[in-house]
Amino acid sequence: MLKIFKVTAVLEGISYLVLFSNMLFIKPSNFELYHTLLYPIGMSHGVLFIAYVLLAILVKKSQNWSFKTLGIILLASLIPFGAFYVEKKYLKNV
């Protein structure tokens, strides 16, 4: 379960950065391409985000994380590069 969470955390972090890149770099230059890419990128990020949160809650029990640690892990999913921080600090032994 921990290995699945690690993969999900990395994929969620990548999808978050791709979504930001779509908003920041593609939208001003090519509005049609922006709208073409928005739905698949946004949908994949949404699914990965939900999986990240659910897996974090499930892994909390198996890893005996405190509520503070779980809060940090869940908060990191809202910050760009936060999922990579979680992967480096809390999931490095997988």
TrEMBL record:
Compartment(s) where it occurs, according to its Swiss-Prot or TrEMBL record: Cell membrane
Bilayer-spanning residue ranges: 7-25, 37-58, 65-86
Stretches assigned to the DUF3817 domain: 2-90
Pfam families registered for this protein in UniProt: DUF3817 (PF12823)
Membrane topology: Multi-pass membrane protein
InterPro entries: DUF3817_TM
Keywords: Cell membrane, Membrane, Transmembrane, Transmembrane helix
Major location category of this protein: membrane
Keyword presence, Translocase: no
GO cellular component: plasma membrane
Protein name: Integral membrane protein
Organism in which the protein naturally occurs: Flavobacterium degerlachei
